[in-house]
Amino acid sequence: MELHIAKDPQQLSENLAAWISNYIQEVLQDQERFTFVLSGGNTPKQLYQLLAKEPYRQMIPWEKIHFFWGDERAVPFEDDRNNAKMAYETLLTPLGIPEENIHVMRTDILPEDAAAEYEALLKEYFNNSEVTFDLVLLGMGDDGHTLSLFPGLPIVLEQKAWAKAFFLSAQHMYRITLTAPVVNRAACVVFMATGAGKAITLKNVIEGTFNAEQFPSQLIRPQDGELHWFVDEAAAGALE
């Protein structure tokens, strides 16, 4: 695990944009396409806006990148809570990414059907490869959740399925999510975490004893890939 600490969220986003650009270009020297799992929430918005502008607009061969999602709220695309909507507005539409390179989790069908369809899509796409995604971008909630893997829920213990849907009663909505097994087969996973509100949780996740049911972010440990944490000073405040 590699830890990258920035002064504030702005600096973190700038550092990570540069890092992602370098990483994508490096990987594409050895293969024809790059798979990128996007995160929802507020934390990555600034990052997406930076990636959609110069110099990254020109530096990154965007036509070779295929986009996926880590999780989705089962609300219509037009709903501001929809993760795909945010990514389209800040990154995909400004860059003119072709639709055939964008693989959303559908919210216009039953959540369980959407999860099954997404898992089938992934298994066809990766075709029994040992490694899945080239890059998975994740956030971490104040409670230690990542993706839609929330503390104390059965989804945290999922060992087989690559995508699942479930009703999250605390939010009165269905969630569709990738699971730890598929993410842990990725070549590289990057977490973003900002703010003092996450400091104690971050300390528990990185330095505490393993307790994934309480801190599901601990589940994300790539088998053969890299794990990076990009955090700001406030989030890193409790680390040794």
Automatic annotation (TrEMBL):
Keywords: Hydrolase
GO biological process, one term: pentose-phosphate shunt
EC number: 3.1.1.31
GO molecular function, one term: 6-phosphogluconolactonase activity
Hydrolase recorded as keyword: yes
Pfam families, sorted: Glucosamine_iso
Domain Glucosamine/galactosamine-6-phosphate isomerase: start-end pairs: 8-229
Entry's family note: Belongs to the glucosamine/galactosamine-6-phosphate isomerase family. 6-phosphogluconolactonase subfamily.
The name this protein goes by in its record: 6-phosphogluconolactonase
Organism: Chitinophaga agrisoli
